[in-house]
Structure formats: C-alpha cells, structure tokens
Task: structure prediction
Amino acid sequence: GDSVTQMEGPVTLSEEAFLTINCTYTATGYPSLFWYVQYPGEGLQLLLKATKADDKGSNKGFEATYRKETTSFHLEKGSVQVSDSAVYFCALSAPPGQGAQKLVFGQGTRLTINP
Amino acid sequence: DTEVTQTPKHLVMGMTNKKSLKCEQHMGHRAMYWYKQKAKKPPELMFVYSYEKLSINESVPSRFSPECPNSSLLNLHLHALQPEDSALYLCASSLGRLGNTDSPLHFGNGTRLTVT
Result:
C-alpha cells in the first residue's frame, strides 16, 4: 500500500540555520504531495503542496519539490525562526473516493528552533 | 483563526457516559473527516463523509458513531469508551469534488478527550 517515510526527529536548530526535513513516498500512480504543520495545541495546517512531478510548492519561506525519479518531497527553508518550532507532517493523497481524499501521513518530525 | 470549528475543546468522560463531539464549517466543502491523533503520532483516519453520505469507515469500533446532519455539520457520538480512546479528535473538511486529489484538508483545532 501507499506509505510515507519522514526523517526521524526531533530536530533542534539555531535561529537562521538551514533546514531540511527528508520525505520519501511509495505509491501507485501519481499522488498529490503535501506538507502540513502542527503548532502546539492546534490542528494541522497546510504548509505547501505539489500535484505533479517537478512541481515546487512554496509558502512562508519553505519549499519542496516533487521528485518522481527519487520519490521524494523534501522540505527546505533557508533561515529558520523560533516561530517555526512545530511538528511537520509529509503526506500523500491516495486516489479519490467519491470526491473525498484519503491522506497517508508520515510519522511527523518535531522541530525546535533555539534563539 | 481556523475555519473549521470544533466543540468542546476539552472533554472528560467516564466509560459509561454518552457524549458527542461537534464540528462545523461554512466554506461550502462537501467532504468532511474525523481523525484520531495520539500523542507524538500522526493523525489516523476514522471516517469520511462525501456529500453527507458516509464513504469511508476505517474499521472503527461501533462505540464511535458518526453523523452528518447537513453539509456544514459533522458529529461524532461516543458511548462506552475505553481509557485507550483518550486522544485528540480532529475534524477536517475539503472541497470534495469528484476526481479531485489536490484540494487540501482544513483542520479544526480538535477536541482533547480523556476517558476515565
């Protein structure tokens, strides 16, 4: 079945450091790929998405490129801030069922940024 | 502010109680979801409603009973729960149009449920 594998955390960085969180997937067909972020005490928020090979999603300084040849969707940010501290989930969307989606999540990576 | 509203924020219930979780969205979304999230784990899908009809049930025990009274509301009725059911219950919605796989899910902030 479809699956998503994220690098294990927790990840601790200093402010202004470069961030990479690795994500690889296994899927039949051509899924859409997403990064969601969960701040403490909140639900998940969409950070960015890509729907086909070579698409680059970007938002709030974060970027990820849909790489079909390596089945990867790594999240990057050039200079992290304390406010980026959260849990990050990579996810893919399985084929639709009557208009709804079935998201398959990775295990999540907890990121802590120290001032 | 989240566009998906969940009530209550916190709920403590005994194993013999009956309670309900509520979720509301006014974005015109036609797909609504219940997820369960344990600490330090990703969300696990429980139920999906599409156009007010139950389309996916991920083999959830019958002590959890979903209901979709209309396109804006989603309920989760709870009865005879176990302590291991304690978790964060998240509601989400998406555009839900046929053949669409890239419409993102919008999540509420969840109900923190404790079963004693």
Summary: The longest strand of chain A covers residues 86-97. The mean pLDDT of chain A is 92. The CA atoms of residues 4 and 106 of chain A lie 5 Å apart. Chain A has no helices and twelve strands.
